[in-house]
Design a protein that fits this description.
It comes from Neovison vison. Helices cover 44% and strands 19% of the residues. The chain contains seven helices and six strands, in the order H-H-E-E-H-H-H-E-H-E-H-E-E. Strands 1-2-3-4-6-5 form a six-stranded mixed β-sheet, with helices on both faces. The longest helix has 19 residues.
Length: 191
Amino acid sequence: ASVYKICREMYDDGVGLPFQSQPDLIGDKLVGGLLSLSLDYCFVLEDEDGICGYALGTVDVTPFIKKCKISWIPFMQEKYTKPNGDKELSEAEKIMLSFHEEQEVLPETFLANFPSLIKMDIHKKVTDPSVAKSMMACLLSSLKANGSRGAFCEVRPDDKRILEFYSKLGCFEIAKMEGFPKDVVILGRSL
C-alpha cells in the first residue's frame, strides 16, 4: 500500500490524479506485478514519515511476463473492465485498456544482454542523490549476484521527471534497437 502511495503521489505531481475513483490503478500498472511476483528484488526507502521510495526488479523478464499473463493480468482484467474504445479515452481508461491488450515484447537480442526489468522511484522530498544511487546499487548488485548480465527500465517519453531521475543516476543509457515499442523509452545498463 505504501509503494502504491508513492506511485500515486509521484504520478500526480500536483496536477490532480485523473482517476481518483480508481486509487490503485497507477500502482497496479507500474509496480503491482513486480510486488506480487518478484518480491525477492523489492527494496524500499523509509524516513520518519514512512516509505518514500522503492526499487523493484526481476532477474529475467521473460518468465516474469509469462507469470504475469497467467496470474497478474487476469486479476487486473477482472478488477478493471475493458473501456469502450468507441470514444476518446481518459488517462485512466487508457491504463485500464492496457490490461486488456497484448503488450509488445522487447526483441530477444536485447533481452539476451539486458534480461532484468527494474522500476525505481523516490519521492521528491528526498533531495540527497546518494540515497537513490545506493538503492539502485543494492538492486543491481542483487540482480547481478543472481545471474543477470544487464538491466533495463521502460519510461514514457513524456515523463520528463523520471527520465531526468534516471539520467541523474548516471548509469543508464537510452537503448535504441529495431523492434522496440514506439510509445516507451528503453534505458539499459550492463552489470
